[in-house]
């Protein structure tokens, strides 16, 4: 994808994130209300136990672990005078920028959770965490290990969907909270990718298609 297309798509995703946030900030509508009623108190049963485990594994711990790993890798590569160190540093910066979306946006929208729970609801911090980690790993693979891009992308999508589902089942997020998280991370990732020069050259093959 060219830098121009990335800028346009990134801007559209962020705009969609903001519009959705304004639209749902006052009360649950449509699918939010429907699933909220259908899954009410489901979190107290076996499904809630499974969702709790998924939520514990696929959540804020992931970007922290990845950030530490990237920091150590960058230091080791830098000491070896390996130019890949700067790629790792830029990917680490991308990770931080994507993860920051929930910290910055939640106080702005101030959306209440489906049930009593700390912090605001929009966007889902767990989904932002998983999506941010996914984006960083995929970008790293695009630049340093293109043969892994397809596999890592599939795993990233599955992990993000599982995380989103677990948060809805636990009744701590509305569906639109999880959708907004993906929109925000996608928008920030594309815009930051251009600014950090993380976009691969446009050519035939794995890197350009990714």
UniProtKB/TrEMBL annotation:
The keyword Heme does not apply. Residues 87-193 form the Phosphatidic acid phosphatase type 2/haloperoxidase domain. SUPFAM superfamilies: Acid phosphatase/Vanadium-dependent haloperoxidase. InterPro entries: PAP2/HPO (IPR000326), PAP2/HPO_sf (IPR036938). The chain crosses the membrane at residues 49-78, 85-105, 125-144, 151-169, 181-199. Keywords: Membrane, Transmembrane, Transmembrane helix. It comes from the Bacteria. Gene3D superfamilies: Phosphatidic acid phosphatase type 2/haloperoxidase. PANTHER family: AT30094P, SPHINGOSINE-1-PHOSPHATE PHOSPHOHYDROLASE. This is Phosphatase PAP2 family protein.
């Amino acid at each position: 994808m060219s830098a121009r297309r990335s800028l346009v798509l990134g801007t559209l995703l962020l705009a969609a994130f903001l519009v959705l946030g304004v639209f749902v900030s006052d009360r649950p509508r449509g699918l939010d209300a429907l699933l909220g009623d259908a899954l009410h108190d489901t979190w107290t049963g076996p499904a809630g136990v499974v969702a709790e485990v998924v939520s514990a594994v696929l959540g804020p711990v992931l970007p922290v672990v990845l950030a530490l790993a990237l920091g150590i890798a960058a230091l080791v590569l830098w000491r070896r005078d390996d130019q890949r160190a700067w790629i790792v540093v830029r990917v680490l910066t991308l990770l931080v920028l994507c993860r920051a979306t929930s910290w910055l946006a939640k106080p702005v929208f101030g959306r209440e959770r489906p049930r009593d729970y700390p912090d605001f609801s929009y966007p889902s911090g767990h989904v932002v965490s998983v999506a941010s980690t996914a984006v960083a790993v995929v970008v790293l693979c695009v630049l340093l290990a293109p043969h892994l891009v397809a596999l890592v992308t599939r795993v990233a999508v599955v992990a993000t969907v599982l995380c989103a589902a677990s948060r809805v089942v636990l009744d701590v997020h509305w569906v639109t909270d999880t959708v907004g998280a993906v929109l925000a991370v996608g928008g920030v990732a594309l815009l930051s990718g251009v600014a950090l020069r993380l976009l691969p050259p446009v050519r035939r093959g794995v890197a350009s298609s990714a």
